[in-house]
């Protein structure tokens, strides 16, 4: 099977552009992580009877969706996540950035452990094992765009390696002649 260099270059350019657009869309949107509590708010514990329903309607909805830069609640404005480099004239050395990266990774690890503990505590407080049936926690379409961008980037790399191989074979053929 003969592969044309132009087709490989076109495929690499198309996959690279697609990867960039999808990654930009994924980074710029706020649907990486979605928590939907509508079923819990509608019919959860304490919502039985008139008094319970009245109390439940006064509570702020807990549903939210989060991105890389901010978290958004259903009826509240989005809250930006902390940015340590928000000032324009801040200069941070490379070692400080590396230390900040390590602290950030440690913070993410603590957050994951805290989230698991908070979920177990919520189960105990509600005294209901069907919490997973009432709270829908899932990853959103922004994460899917990020993964599709990753796959497109891999395809770009494969196309570039194939193009390099085709050029190498052509050079060997030209030298043999």
Describe this structure in words.
The protein has 6 helices and 5 strands; from the N terminus they run αβααβββααβα. By secondary structure, the chain is α+β, with helices and mostly antiparallel strands. A 5-stranded antiparallel sheet has the order 4-3-2-1-5. A hairpin with a 3-residue loop joins strand 2 (64-66) and strand 3. The longest helix has 36 residues, at 141-176. The two termini are 22 Å apart.
Radius of gyration: 25 Å
Strand and helix order: HEHHEEEHHEH
Percentage of residues assigned to helices? 55-70%
| Alpha-beta content class | alpha+beta
The fraction of residues in strands falls at: 5-15%
State the end-to-end CA separation: 22 Å
Mean pLDDT: 78
Q: Specify the number of helices.
A: 6
Overall, the morphology is elongated
Placed side by side, the strands forming the largest sheet appear as: 4-3-2-1-5
Main beta sheet: 5 strands, antiparallel
Low-confidence stretches: 46-56
Count of distinct strands:
5
Task: For this entry, give a set of tags.
177 residues; alpha+beta; five-stranded antiparallel sheet; 5 strands
Quick overview:
This protein has 177 residues and is of the alpha+beta class. It has six helices and five strands; from the N terminus they run H-E-H-H-E-E-E-H-H-E-H.
Layout of strands and helices, then pairs:
Blueprint: H1 5-28, E1 33-36, H2 38-43, H3 49-58, E2 64-66, E3 70-73, E4 79-80, H4 94-126, H5 131-134, E5 136-139, H6 141-176
Antiparallel strand pairs: 1-2, 1-5, 2-3, 3-4
């Amino acid at each position: 099977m003969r592969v044309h260099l132009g087709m490989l270059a076109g495929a690499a350019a198309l996959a690279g552009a697609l990867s960039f657009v999808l990654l930009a869309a994924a980074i710029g949107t706020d649907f990486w992580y979605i928590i939907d509590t509508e079923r819990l708010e509608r019919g959860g514990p304490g919502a039985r009877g008139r008094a319970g329903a009245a109390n439940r309607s006064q509570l702020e909805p807990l549903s939210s969706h989060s991105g890389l830069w901010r978290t958004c609640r259903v009826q509240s404005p989005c809250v930006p996540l902390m940015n340590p480099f928000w000032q324009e004239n801040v200069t941070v050395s490379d070692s400080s950035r590396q230390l900040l990266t390590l602290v950030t990774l440690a913070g993410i690890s603590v957050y994951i452990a805290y989230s698991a503990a908070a979920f177990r505590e919520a189960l105990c407080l509600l005294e209901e094992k069907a919490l997973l049936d009432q709270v829908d926690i899932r990853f959103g379409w922004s994460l899917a765009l990020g993964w599709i961008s990753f796959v497109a980037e891999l395809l770009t790399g494969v196309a570039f390696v194939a193009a390099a191989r085709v050029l190498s074979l052509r050079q060997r053929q030209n030298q043999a002649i």
